[in-house]
Specification:
16% strand, Rossmann fold, 15 helices, 5-stranded mixed β-sheet, 4 domains, alpha/beta, 4-stranded parallel β-sheet, Hect, E3 ligase catalytic domain fold
Amino acid sequence: MIPAVIYARYSSSNQREESIAGQLRDCRQYAERNGLVVIEEYTDSAMTATSDRRPSFQRMIQDAEKHTFQVVLVWKLDRFARDRYDAAFYRKQLRENGAKLISVMEPIADGPEGIILEGMLEAMAEYYSANLSENIKRGTYDSAIQRKVIGTMPLGYKKGQDGRYEIDPATAPIVQRIFREYTSGRSRAQIIEGLNVDGIRTRHGKPFNKTGLYPILKNEKYIGIYRYKDIIDDSAIPALIDRETYQEAQRLMREKSFTKKRRDLPGDPYRLATRVFCGLCGSPMTGESATSRSGKIYRYYSCIRKKDGTCTKERVPQQWLEEAVIRILNEQILTDEMIEQFVEAYRKQMDSFNQDTTADLYKSELADVERKISNTTKAIADGFWSDSVRTMLSELEARRDELTMLIRREEQNHPLITPEMIREYFQELRARATSSGQTQDALIDLFLRRVYVWDPKEKGQPVKAVLEISLTGSDGEPVSFDVVLGSSENSTVEGSVHVSNTSILVCCTL
């Protein structure tokens, strides 16, 4: 008996004989007739074959490297791939690993004739996919010419009987409230909290979150602008927000974005700004500079209460303090033991992570859209055809394309990070900490919460400092793992270390 596997893919444009169940049934019968024993079945549901980004497909290709099977059965070649280059590339990979691809519904003989037939079938599959895409684009463009709804319906609107945007009286006040509160000075976090407390939900019926408010504030449909490719109409949609309010919201978002970028800008003259505090009175220390007669600039960190005479703390040279802090971070935090604990903490966090990501939400909606497309296509095949059905199919296809693009963008912006990547990242930080200003900024942003600095007891003596090293996540919540630092006697920094569940206190002399 020859070991074989089956690969089946759900076709979103035709679900008759090409359904998963039908494919598996025919492939199993073929295996039984031809002396093959099926050891594994790989299936991808609602996944296009124009891309190789299919989880089960990639798993099958990887499993082939183990040489546990010699045959891959597919219902038809277009189930394997609809791109000739993908088909040739992955067929070659299978062949190099001793596995042969067989189409059970397309008997292809070995030899030159079979090679030509395979090429024709793959070319036809690619042509079908490209032609279908062109038809979808053409139908979507026709809808845009008529200013009809395309893609996701924004909160505050509904589709009218003519297919165009209409104001939804039930949800429009929500959008107006969001813009009103944001332009009055409330933060996005405060707005979200207020909406959720009042029981207001998104158009999907879910609580608002920090990623859901930004697209609303940026959506120019709310001031009446209809945009699709080269079609721009500033009066095709009934406006929910006046243009002055919308422009003020854009200004505030740009301002806040600039402030964040300015704070995180590599090479900032005072990279410890907002993190340095006076050890005598606890007040913040800010950057100040002085210019000598020769024109040389000297930079310092100075207690804000020194200017009014309520604190006697001496100012601290900026470059000296920053170099000392970087040295402590590098020697006390980026040790091999600490890096392994960060890696283990990340691994545990990923194991317990069960919340839906934005990509998962898009995928869930995509599956629903694919189901509707399949039902509509079946209805057309059964003879139910009208202009309204055609329009609905075009809109569904357009939404499918949009969701596919959004999923791809999310996966590119938020790639899967492995524990090994975490380890390599911290090791790279350690290696470059003394030579790269950008790496030093990254170290400070990652770990340093505060540094308290005292005056030396006598002039020329070491300066006492306490560094509070943050162990909190990006959302401000404590990272749940224990930290054990090596003995301070083994460190180049003299002092002691105190560990809590949210931070490490490094008491040292600089």
